[in-house]
Amino acid sequence: MKRVVVGLSGGVDSAVAALLLKERGWEVHGLFMSNWEEDDDGYCTAAQDFQDARAVAAELGIPLHRVSFAAEYRERVFRHFLAEYRAGRTPNPDVLCNREIKFGVALRYAARLGAEAFATGHYARLVAGHAGIELHKARDRTKDQSYFLHAVQRSELARTVMPIGDLEKTEVRARARQAGLPVFDKPDSTGICFVGERPFREFLGRYLPDRPGPIESADGQRLGEHAGLSFFTLGQRAGLNIGGRPGRPELPWYVAAKDTARNALIVVQGHDHPLLLSPALTTGPLHWLARPRPERFPCTVKVRYRQADQAASLEPLAGGAARIVFERPQRAVTPGQYAVVYAGERCLGGAVIETVLAHAGT
Questions:
Q1: CATH class for domain 277-357?
Q2: Where in the sequence of the chain do the CATH 3.40.50.620 domains occur?
Q3: What's the average model confidence in pLDDT over 297-309?
Q4: Of 44, 97, 299, 347, which is the active-site residue?
Q5: Strands 64-67 and 117-119
Q6: DSSP for residue 289
Q7: What is the pTM of this model?
Q8: CATH 2.40.30.10 in the chain, residues?
Q9: Measured CA distances, 61 to 13, 48, 49, 130, 303 (Å)
Q10: Mean pLDDT of 313-321
Q11: Which end of the chain has fewer CB atoms < 10 Å from its terminal CB, N or C?
Q12: 44 is a catalytic site residue
């Protein structure tokens, strides 16, 4: 009997992944990772999540291992997270968390437990292609997590199983209920990978000091003061506290740019102001999950999770970077986030967004 280690988070998705693998005849072990130091601020749910994972393991009759990769998480994910915010960018720690922790140190830990495969409750599909494993979108488009998995090495995906990628979320909950799993109606978790749900401004303020500066309109009028560029992201509306201004239309303000040289936050009025729209971007080195393409080619791209696929063309640049040109300008494209590339159902890879063309003619 082949052994598989399932990353049991205490949620319904990983619980059903373990259930399905047991039904398929695998020798299933659970692995619970608590990789953020627990605190007493009322937001850390690791203790309850572990109890839920224990209850699932008991119901399924499988062993449960508990491990902390807190040091690795701090060094490989959270350190980069803070460095990006200090630089005025907006990172996505879940991508690095998958690459470095879940499909990095955790997968290797599973191998030390004698596993032939590592399994997760991700909504994505792994398909055997002519040239090796391929990452495809989940059947449930509203839950598809291929965006977060684009940076995982293909060699690690080849040692991975994602049993719920062909199921709708409603089917996952139904399977959990039928099997008597105690987490069948547990709400989905959100927030930062392993850090969880908490007031983000307050949390970030623990690690990044306030650095006040001006809030300015695109034509240079001072409108107010911000606490630090790190606490804002492009396209943001809430938290500006500048209200209306005489002589200006009664429209909401949005963050359009960060002038890091002057520590100034540039804002505009209107959800679709031209300064919020980007026809093109450049990336850092692409991580390919397919054969690298040396020539320009048509594709679709997501610049944020849950975004619909956007028609574009990708032009390879020197050093493995790329220039992506969209058929229709995209709103609030944000340096530090990821541009993830698709060909139909298949995820071809992705890269960090480095520079953004603000709007046509600039």
A1: mainly beta
A2: 3-200
A3: 96
A4: 97
A5: unpaired
A6: S
A7: 0.92
A8: 277-357
A9: 17, 20, 18, 38, 42
A10: 97
A11: N
A12: no
Q: Is the pLDDT of residue 361 over 90?
A: no
Whole-number Å distance between alpha carbons of 69 and 79: 14
Question: Tens digits of per-residue pLDDT, 140-187?
Answer: 999 999 999 999 999 999 999 999 999 999 999 999 999 999 999 998
User: DSSP code of 207?
Assistant: T
Angle formed at CA 305 by CA 299 and CA 311, multiple of 5 degrees? 20
- Report, as an integer, the average pLDDT of 339-359: 93
Q: Is the pLDDT of residue 280 over 70?
A: yes
CA dihedral (173, 179, 181, 184) in degrees, to 10, reads: 20
- Output phi, psi for 15, to 5 deg: -65, -45
Give the C-alpha distances (Å, rounded to integers) separating 186 from 19, 44, 190: 16, 16, 12
User: Is the CB of residue 336 less than 8 Å from the CB of residue 91?
Assistant: yes
239-242: which pairs have CB atoms within 8 A and are 24 or more residues apart?
239/201, 240/215, 240/267, 242/215, 242/267
**Distance between alpha carbon 99 and the CA centroid of its chain, in Å?**
11
Residue type, 241: N
Residue span(s) of the chain under CATH 2.30.30.280 come to 209-271
With 0-12 / 13-18 / 19 or more C-beta atoms within 10 angstroms meaning exposed / middle / buried, residue 341 is buried
Q: Does an H or E element contain 259, and which?
A: strand 253-259
- The burial class, CB within 10 Å (0-12 / 13-18 / 19+), for 179 is middle
CATH of 209-271, one of 1.10.10.60, 3.30.70.100, 2.30.30.280, 3.90.25.10: 2.30.30.280
Return the CATH fold of 3-200. Rossmann fold (3.40.50)
